[in-house]
Amino acid sequence: MKTHGFKLKLAGFIISVFFLTSSHIFALQSTSTISFSKKELSFEKVSGYDVVKHSGAHFMNKVGEPALPVRNVYVALPSDAQVTGIELVSFDLEELSGRYQIYPAQPPVPLKRGAKPGPFVQPKSSIYNSSEPYPKDVVSYVGTGSLGGHKIAMLQVCPIQFVSSEGELRLYDRIEFNFITISEKQPPRAILRSRTAQSVYDQISKDLVINSEDVGKSLNYVPPPGDFFEYLIITNDELLSSFQPLADWKTEKGIPAVIRTTSWINSNYSGIDLQEKIRSYLKIAHQDSGTVWALLGGDTQVVPCRHVRIEFETYTEDIPCDLYYSDLDGSWNYDGDSWYGEPEDSVDMFPDLFVGRAP
Question: Phi and psi (nearest 5°) for 198?
Answer without folding.
Answer: -65, -35
